[in-house]
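Thread: Modeling a multi-component assembly for a lab meeting

Hi all, long-time lurker, first post. My supervisor asked me to bring a structural picture of a complex we are working on to next week's group meeting, and I have zero experience with this. I have the sequence lines for every component (968 residues in total). Could someone generate the structure of the whole assembly? Inputs are pasted exactly as I received them:
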Amino acid sequence: MSTPGGTAKKTNRIGLEVMQYRGGKTTLCAGCGHNAITERLVETFWEMGVQPWDVAKVSGIGCSSKTPAYFLGLSHGFNGVHGRAPAIATGALLANHNLIGVVVTGDGDTVSIGLGQFMHMLRRNVPLIYIIENNGVYGLTKGQFSATADVGSKLKTGVVNDMPPIDVCLAGVELGATFVARSFSGDKRQLQAILKAALSHKGLSVIDVISPCTTFNDHEGSTKSYGYMRDHEEALHDIDFVPAYDDISVEYEEGTTREVEMHDGSRLLLRKLARDYDPTVRFAAIELLNRPQKPGEVLTGILYIDNDAPTLIDRLQLGDAPLGTLPVDKVRPSREALERVMEELR
Amino acid sequence: MSTYAARPGPGASGEATSHDHPARTSRIVNDFSIQVATVNGSGSQTANNVLMRSIFQMGVPVSGKNMFPSNIAGLPTWFTIRANEKGYIGRKKEVDFLVAMNPETAREDVVNLEPGAAVLFDAPLKLEELRSDLHWYAVPFDKLVAPVCPEAKLRKLVRNMIYPGILAHLLGIDFEQMRKALFKQFGPRKAKAAQLNWGAVLAGKEFAERNLPKTDPLCIEQRDRNQGKIIVDGNSAAALGCVFAGATVLTWYPITPSSSLAEAMIGYLNRLRIDPETGKATYAVVQAEDELAAVGMAIGAGWAGARAMTCTSGPGISLMSEFVGLAYYVEVPVVIIDIQRVGPSTGLPTRTAQGDILKNAVLSHGDTCHPVLFPSSPEECFEFAGLAFDLAEQFQTPVFVNSDLDLGMNNWMSDPFPYPDGPMRRGKVLSAADLDRLGGFARYKDVDGDGVGYRTLPGTKHPSAAWFARGSGHNERAQYSERQDDYVHNVDRLARKFQTMRSYVPKPELRTTPGASIGIINCGSSRYACEESSDQLLTERGLPVDVLRLRAYPFGPEIEAFVDSHERVYVVEQNRDGQLQLLMRMEFTPERIAKLRGVRHYSGLPIDARSVTDAIVKQEGL
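Re: Modeling a multi-component assembly
Sure thing. I ran the full set together rather than chain by chain. Output:
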């Protein structure tokens, strides 16, 4: 493992230390699942040797949306308005499609107030990594149910949820995301492998991470608590990710492993565990997500990958240089062009 | 009878009552209005444009106003063409020549006419029985159309091209100019349709020559007042302004009356903004899922360095409110073009108003203030679109351009647009080289004393480039802060920044009349009615009036000087509550406030000079 700590001078392939991938000190509760996700993001971006200044972080409002301040302090970030991170991130990528977009939101942000924007971002296949830190509860307003709370899930106050949850992964597969995964904030290895694969994916990656709220939703009766997830998480497969720049040949058992080649030449290795599952088949993903699981079972892993679908940026036929900084001679038509238009209007 | 609430004609709600019309005895040359009443979706728009363009080509100043329903086909629509040799191109309230093609409204349209007006009508309607004080021209349209249009299903459309032929004969419009106008309107690709329609014009002409002796006094004579001028709608002009301003990102959501701006812009972008070397687009357009997303994307793009914009109308503005406050507080450039229509709520979606003046100036919760530009002509739509991007980037803030339906969707005569020679003013943006030199920066520090900080763009390849944009409280270094001194320091700087803008936005335009102690203040498309009214007040009542046309908010010092130098000042605007006047009251002294009077026009139809004159005459006690 390349977990930071130990030698302070350890650097990645572009010569940066892991400290340079950290951000401000977290103000979230001790033990919050979101903090663990922040750690995985720090490690992943460091290990993958991403230039921090190539990244644009965007979030909405809520506990989860505070987290972009806690990782990649050398990257620009935008903590916007509730539920509208997709719009800001989409716009940023229109202005500069060379940016690596990372959106961190929560279940309230994405599935309630921002559901419309979320769905249209899926439809457009906006090329960015979209992480939903999903705890089933509104933490920052002190513990109301969100739209991902399971039926029968109980609040600390004793209120029981009787409304069915919205499955963001199912929405992701059905509406156009081209990389859909679910993980658990406490599953260090799996989450990091998923994040690395998402970084190598060209289109929209939606990653639903069950992330327990230690303050309002980590008690008996909650279906998004640490205890519940430990007992009910069922990994679809064991994931390994081999970056393109990594020459190590990973050994795996033929016949039980599926290899997916990513856009940048890196490879995603899925070691099959419980079932024979091919994440490149859309109907299979939809069927899997609809199939009744064992009571309380939470499937994790990479549910769907489509490496061929065009992204929003592909469809816009843009050149290599970002639109935002094109010089005047590229964006102002000639005097003759204006004169021709005027002549037509005479 | 029509139950349609807002309809043209004297006595419509919200308009002053008509005055006595002079008797029409001698010939009236190049000074009258034609109103064509038809059914929406019947192809009359083409006929009306041909008629308007023919008069334009004869060198006579002309304007066209389409009063259409919120409907695709079937409801009544009116198109008013005003020819005026003196160059008055605002709406004229009185109709001098009615073309009554719509059975549903014909009777009411006729009843509302002034004595002496002329009516061209579909013969089976038998309108001549209604009044004896009008000039009547009955035309059997169905009989005329059959021989020129063998294909029965096209007759409904071609039928409407007969009245331009009749009018040309009656009014003395040059047929060669009409032929040119018609073929220009259809374009080379629709030459066959043009030929068919030209047949209808000629059928009308021949019928009129044989059967309609002229009894009315109205006529058009050749002049030379339109040399070099173009005909264009304000939305196309604004779209061109954005294209030539180097706008790179347009994110929008369809809404009347702003959709035609986005659509015109897409057309011009496709044509003018493909890089000839690479064949790649130098722009991105996204039709968003709603106005929240539309402005949100534009703000995201502005943050990342694009000249980003959206266009909308009142309901969209309401939805954008939260995001606009974010852009104000985070200090992100974005241009929002508002083609105002009648509210509140859905209101009258296809009627005009200046109803978003106050709202746009202070849009969003908390203490917010935004610059608002008020174009009054296609030329200013073009110019202000470009200026809005410069201001937005120089001041790192949302900039509103308040056009309206009258300006945006109607065709106007205009001088050709001057090519924007100047540089794109992109404001205080630090590059990686700047950061090397400076060693770092504090995003919201007022280094230059103008309230405007320095920013970097995401993607700037430098370890000191990043700053964190947040709608929550922040200090000079863009760090999260709930400290009261940080908050006060920051919003005071934002107020200072707004003060700086006063000398950067377009200055008002002053039109003086010697001896005036009375003033009119107006903005945007109210201009034409106000200028014509000041001439009416002088010639009809001997009252000299100065007119100050505001071109932007925040106001400059000129407005207070104008109020100080006049005894009374009439603030003329197209809304009920006097929004422009309220904006002045926010910063005027009690002495200046006491001088203000309001003239408000809010029927949904463009303001006209007669209404302004009547209101001022009444308030002056003349």
